[in-house]
Amino acid sequence: MSHFTEVKLAHASRLINHGPTVLVTSSHGGRGNVMAAAWSMPVEFTPPRIAVVIDKTTWTRELVTASGAFGICVPGAALVDLTHAVGSLSGRSVDKFERFGIRTRPGPVLGVPLLEAGCAAWLECRLIREPHAEDAYDTCFGEVVAAAADSRIFAGGHWTFREDNADLQTIHHLGGGHFVRAGGTLRAAGS
Amino acid sequence: MSHFTEVKLAHASRLINHGPTVLVTSSHGGRGNVMAAAWSMPVEFTPPRIAVVIDKTTWTRELVTASGAFGICVPGAALVDLTHAVGSLSGRSVDKFERFGIRTRPGPVLGVPLLEAGCAAWLECRLIREPHAEDAYDTCFGEVVAAAADSRIFAGGHWTFREDNADLQTIHHLGGGHFVRAGGTLRAAGS
Prior knowledge:
Chains A, B: Residues 14-156 form the Flavin reductase like domain. Chain A is 14% helix and 41% strand. Chain A has 191 residues and is mainly beta. In chain A, a hairpin with a 2-residue loop joins strand 11 (154-155) and strand 12.
C-alpha cells in the first residue's frame, strides 16, 4: 500500500528546498531511464519551477529533450545504494528499471515514470526550453505540474524527520558515494 | 585563530554538492550585505561554476549586479539563528554586518566580504552575466575563483561529519525557520 498523497503545487518547492540528491526519470518512444542528480534546486515558488543539471552527454538528457518532460523523485535513505548505482552507469546500454527491478507509476499529468517505493516524494515536471542555459550550463528548467509525498515524512506542507521514518529521510551526496542523511532537526530562534 | 585553509578549485563543487543553505555576501561602493539562500547548486566541476537564486527585489541582487561578484559562505549549525535572521530582513534599511556583529575578511581575488567564524566554508565567485536567466528565473551563475574551508570539517577535498564538529555541520532549510543538520553519514555499496 502506497502512503503517497498529493502535495499542493504551492508547497512543491519544499520537497527539494533542503538540497537532497534526487533521481531524474524520463521516457520517450517506449524507452525510459533513471539517473541520480545531486545538482537541483527550486527557482520559483509560484508557479513552482525548478532547475536541475543534466549533462548533455547523458541518455536522460536525450529523453528529456525529446519528451519535454521529466520526473524528480526524492529517494529515502533506504535507497542510497540504488541511488549510487543508477548514477554510475548509463541507460544507453542497459534498461535500469529492469536491471534494478524498479517499479514506476505514470505521472498524472504527463505520464512521466515515477518511483514511489523507498522514495519520500516526487515532482512531475514539464521542461521549459532554455537552449542557452541547457547548452552552456547543462541546466534544465522545469515547471512542476504535479507533486506527491509519502505522508509518513511529508504532510500538510511540512517535513517531519523522526526516528521511525529514518529509511525515508532524504540523502545528500558529498561525493564519491558518501552521503549524509537529513537527520537532526534544528529550529531557528524566532521562527 | 582561523582553521580555514585553501580548497583546490577542482574540489570547490563539493562544498555545496549536498545542498546546504548558504549566505550570499556582496559589496559595492562602500556598502555590503549578507542574505540567506536555500537555492543554490553547482553546475560545472571544471571550471567550477555554480548557480544561486537571488530575487531581483533584493539589495543583494543590486550589489551583485553592480560589483559583478558575490560570496557563498556555508554556515555551520551554530549559525542557524544568524542564518534565519539575515534571511528575514533587508539590507536596504540596516547594515546587517553591524547589526549582528558579523566580521568579514576580503576575498583573495575579488575582495568580496567573506564570513569565516562559525562557517564551514566559503566560495568567492565572479558573476557570469546571463541577463535572461537572471530576469526569468532570478538565477545568477558564477565562476568560483577561490575557495576555502575549515579544516576541522573539510580537508583533502572531503567532508568529515563527526560528533566533535557538530557546530560546523551544514544546515539545510526545510522552510519556516526549520532546518536539518547534515548528520548521519551513509556510504553507498561499492563506493
